[in-house]
Amino acid sequence: MAREVSSISRVGTSEPFELQSSRDQIAYHNTLFKYGYNPNIINVSETVWDAGGLYAYPGSAVAMTVTSAGGATDSGVKVLVSGLDTNYAELEEEVTLNASGTATTTGLFLRVFRAYVSGATSPTGNITIANGGTTYAQITNGENQTLMAVYTVPAGKTLYINEGIATHGTGTSGGVYMTVRFLVKPFGGVFRTQVKVDVVESQIYYPFAYPIKVTEKSDVEVQAICNKNQSNAISASFNGVLIDNGDAL
């Protein structure tokens, strides 16, 4: 017997807007959740992503080479790369690692902000998505997807960010804290700090009662720095909703 998909419950009340958006029931709306983790930040500012260091953005759209540290052992592993093309339109491509544990996309990526293992076989080593010696995404062994607090708003859409979270693991000595910055770079502009918080071996949650509006083609990322010369781990996330420009609600 066919079931009717509805946003109305049995008692006649509507489901929350957020749930309806996740169920793809709100036209022109798509949800976004980005989570990043950096296992080793010392007293130099780094992006919260698994490859470490400050994230670098491609200067032009390029093919991405997907390489597993497991080499030939990971032949046949499938990886889906997600980002934007030269026109900032959304672009996804699935590749299959060859007998050497590598594959190159046919599509040209101006941005890469997510990748994950899309098949039934997990890799045995870290997977990098790179071009010309610069890594633009990394799938750390055992995670099967990227952990990067990095995103670029596609053309024709506006991102409304509802909240962010930053979590600092325990330091190796007293008095250690992490300074976390949430940054947005409008198209043609520079990175501007939207939120700056200090985290001391705890979690900070910063909701936006009025969501932050991020326009199309803007880059968004989270950076962090430790106040002491010692290794510390940090995680950060942000979420919101993407709404198509020029469409009625």
Folded structure, characterized:
This protein is mainly β and 249 residues long. It has 2 domains: 26-55 and 150-244, Jelly Rolls, CATH 2.60.120.1330; 65-139, no CATH class. Helix content is 2%, strand content 47%. The chain contains 1 helix and 16 strands. Strands 2, 10, 12, 13 and 15 form a 5-stranded antiparallel β-sheet that branches. A 4-stranded antiparallel β-sheet has the order 1-16-11-14. Strand 12 and strand 13 (192-199) form a beta hairpin. The longest helix is centred in the N-terminal third of the chain and has 6 residues, at 17-22. The chain is globular and about 50 Å long. The mean pLDDT is 92.
Secondary structure layout plus pairing:
Elements: H1 17-22, E1 29-41, E2 46-47, E3 65-68, E4 78-84, E5 90-96, E6 102-104, E7 111-117, E8 127-131, E9 134-139, E10 150-152, E11 157-168, E12 178-185, E13 192-199, E14 203-214, E15 219-226, E16 232-244
Antiparallel strand pairs: 1-16, 2-15, 3-6, 3-8, 4-5, 4-7, 8-9, 10-15, 11-14, 11-16, 12-13, 12-15
